[in-house]
Amino acid sequence: MSFLGVAVVRQFERGVVFRFGKLHSTREPGLRLMIPIVDRMRKVSLRTVTMPIPSQQVITRDNVSIGVAAVAYFRRVDPVACIVAIENVQAAIGQIAQTTVRNVVGRSALDDVLSDTETLNESIKEILDRVTERWGVLVELVELKDIELPQAMQRAMAREAEAEREKRGKVIAAEGEALSAGKLAEAADVIASHPIALQLRNLQVLGEIAIERNSTIVFPAQFLDSVRDLGAFVGREATTAAAPEAGDGRGRQEARSTVTDGVPDGHPVPVG
């Protein structure tokens, strides 16, 4: 209705008025009056625009071909510059965003693209913001949302990740064995100092086994000790039995020597 001299500017818009083709003024939201036929108004939305950046085939610095898609958020802050400085600001931002994504990702290694995306996002945003500033546009955010890797690279990375997990698992298991060996050595020293501790531990193990299964269990923990005690007992008994026999033999030999010494040579020794 601007040709009738009346225009309604909504809250999120600004109206740029041209009079005889020349920039005249900027109108705020509300009902605005203009000179019919002489004035023309173009409305500019100041809301944030979400612009998807299509997937780009990029070769990284380490010569890996990947597909990168992103999304950009921008809004127009200068209605006059958006109309006067450039013909189609949204199309221009889309093209420069695609080019910037290819350039920034192409200068980075694959590991940086996968692990340090925040730095890449900030770099792309700064470049776009610097280029679009003269168009009256503020780039608020740029995010890499999809990274496509070749199948061979995905398999290689999966093998690398699996090997890394196995390495960590072996290291953790080795550390656990080292700690366990140290604790077992300390426990062995304690048990050697206090033998009754081994018996208490045996009773604790029997109690734990009895809780899990209701069955009869033969626990030959003291078998070797019993054999050792039995051998010691037999040895003591043998020593005790051998001592009297040795004493009787020495007594008879001494008595015989005494009798022989009391008889003259050449005479028989009386017997009985």
Automatic annotation (TrEMBL):
Coiled coil: none annotated. SUPFAM superfamilies: Band 7/SPFH domain (SSF117892). Residues 4-161 form the Band domain. InterPro entries: Band-7_stomatin-like, Band_7, Band_7/SPFH_dom_sf, Stomatin_HflK_fam. It comes from the Bacteria. PANTHER family: AT06885P-RELATED, BAND 7 PROTEIN-RELATED. Belongs to the band 7/mec-2 family. This is Slipin family protein.
